[in-house]
Design brief:
Elements lengths: L3 E4 L2 E4 L4 E7 L8 E7 L6 E6 L6 E3 L7 E6 L4 E6 L8 E8 L16 E2 L3 E6 L1
Parallel strand pairs: 2-11
Antiparallel strand pairs: 1-3, 3-8, 4-5, 4-9, 5-6, 7-8, 9-10, 9-11
Length: 127
């Protein structure tokens, strides 16, 4: 089992940057592929980005491609989301999630494929 704790959210102006971090407990972090999702008020949770167990492969939603970068540090049990050129529509609660399967197994953009979730961190982008 793994516990996930997100941090780094906050208020930022449009065009600015934020870096989210997710700290994982346990010794088996490297056996999970990881993902970031977000949920805006009144909307369904949507996929943002995912990364393979080794960190060698990544996958992004079209809406964030070229602006967001997912990375991981298996030595320190963390996964990060660097968010640049933020827009008002990026405002949401951001969640990190862990998945037993590696990135190319199944569909990493489906929330139901993830086994563990953090509590979320709020990101607000003012226009």
């Amino acid at each position: 089992q793994v516990q996930l704790v997100e941090s780094g959210g906050g208020l930022v102006q449009a065009g600015g940057s934020l870096k989210l971090s997710c700290a994982a407990s346990g010794r088996t972090f490297a056996t999970y592929s990881m993902g970031w999702f977000r949920q805006a008020p009144g909307k369904e949770r949507e996929f943002v980005a995912a990364i393979s167990r080794s960190g060698a492969r990544t996958y992004y939603a079209d809406s964030v491609k070229g602006r967001f970068t997912i990375s991981r540090d298996n030595a320190n049990n963390t996964v990060s989301l660097q968010m640049n050129s933020l827009k008002a529509e990026d405002t949401a609660v951001y969640y990190c999630a862990a998945r037993f399967n590696d990135l190319w197994v199944g569909n990493p953009s489906f929330a139901r494929e993830y086994n563990y979730w953090g509590q979320g961190t709020q990101v607000t982008v003012s226009s």
